[in-house]
Amino acid sequence: INAEYGTERAAAITAAPTRRRSTMVRCACLQRGVPVDGSNKNKLKERVHRYVRSAGDMAKQGDVAVGQEQKEKLYNDALRRLNKAKKICEEMEMKDTALYYSSGNVHRKLGSFHLAEEMLLIARQQATKGDHMARVSYGLGLTYKQWGDSLPDVPSKTEHFNRARQHYMAAIAADSDLLEAYNNLGVVLVELDKIWCAEQPKDARIAFADRTHLKLAIDYYDRVIEMSPGYDPVRWNKAAALKLCGMDDEKSNETLRVMGAQRKGGARMCRLSNCVIA
Q: Which is nearest to 55 in space by CA: 83, 29, 28, 34?
């Protein structure tokens, strides 16, 4: 983390919670008949898990809610539950990868990318299982990609897209069957290809052989198609990538026409955070 984000920032992100005694948490626990000490740690862990599960359900409702106001209300309600769980964990010095992973995802949905980064980096530190590491790395990839999308200047976009690329690759290294990571990695590589093309002289003839990012994106899309031929987002993205480099054929054009009629929009990036850590 120090190498990626600098010593000062890394220290702020990864600082261990202090042993402060939260009056609010102590009172809440005592009112429910659960004293805040090691003897009831299992009960407190279960309470944390309940908060995380209910927050996850609320965030999913936000994903499908109609209207930005309703979405934000549900996401903020989810955060309130997660913050209650976080206070208990800090009080008892407990680790909970799912809690910080979920908090990071909800902050990302609200566009609070700095907070999303902070929560997900803590989750990455706490992750011990391979599948947990894959999900957390995938969440970081989503965060940096959407963060980059929101930035106006090209250098900052490029920096965040490259970070997204690194984390998607880390997710694949941890779980080689995570289709969403391959698909989203391809989407990031296409964005980097567009930036590279825009930097070339206007009258330059750009050969496909020189478009390293685009070639890699198509390779990753092909891997997904080989693993799961029915995975629709990657079929669309490969067809769109082929069109970008002038290699589109009748089959890819038909894919774009049919899937475009089903849902208008650009690249099919898998954004939903339904990869729940148990």
A: 83
CB 132 within 8 A of CB 144: no
pTM, to two decimals? 0.78
Residue with tokens 């102590």: 26
Contact 52, 84 (CB under 8 A): no
Per-residue pLDDT tens for 238-270? 888 888 776 655 555 555 555 454 444 445 444
Taking the chain, what is the end-to-end CA distance rounded to the nearest angstrom?
A: 25
- In the numeric block, the tokens 């965060």 are attached to 143
Please give the structure tokens belonging to residue 126: 């706490």
Token pair belonging to 263: 């849902």
Distance of CA 122 to the CA centre of its chain: 14
Sign of CA dihedral 182, 63, 162, 118: negative
Q: Would you give the DSSP letter of residue 136? A: H
Using one digit for the tens of pLDDT, what is the confidence trace for 182-224?
A: 999 999 999 999 999 888 888 777 777 788 899 999 999 999 9
Torsion from C-alpha of 140, 142, 163, 87, nearest 10 degrees: -30
Q: Which of 240, 121, 256, 116 is nearest to 186 (CA)?
A: 240
Q: How far apart are CA 148 and CA 160, in angstroms?
A: 5
